[in-house]
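Weekly modeling sync, notes
Attendees: S.R. (lead), two postdocs, one rotation student

Agenda item 3: backlog of single-chain predictions. S.R. asked that every request posted to the team notebook include the full sequence so nobody has to chase files. The rotation student volunteered to paste the first one in as an example of the format we agreed on. Action items at the bottom.

Example entry:
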Amino acid sequence: MPEAKHFPFDKLPFIPCKAPGGETRIARVINKEISHNMGGGLEVGENICIHWTTLYDEILFIHEGSMIVRSGGKEHECRAGDIVWLPEGCTLDYDITGRRCAYFYALYPFDWAARNGMAEP
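Predicted structure, as returned to the notebook:
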């Protein structure tokens, strides 16, 4: 029978994540071993700007710090407590230049990279 899982912050399995524009640290805790549908975890970026087009639907919750999200000719200053919706196919910049940002992300489908013939960064 399915049961709740707890991921204490001090035990999150952060690994380097090579992204276009630099490197972040990511803890992919909701993955194929846990879910057949969703992916999720915590990512921390510092002094980086990433240009990306989403290959999945994604929700970000800004946990600490801030970032600027640029998309569709608009600029959004995202601070701790803010929620950001990124639909599949959204082209954007995650701009964390000169700052640090930690954010929780949830995405669907969890296997977006494999569906697009690539490995997760």
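Discussion: group reviewed the output briefly. The mean pLDDT is 94.
Action items: rotation student to repeat for the remaining queue; S.R. to check formatting next week.
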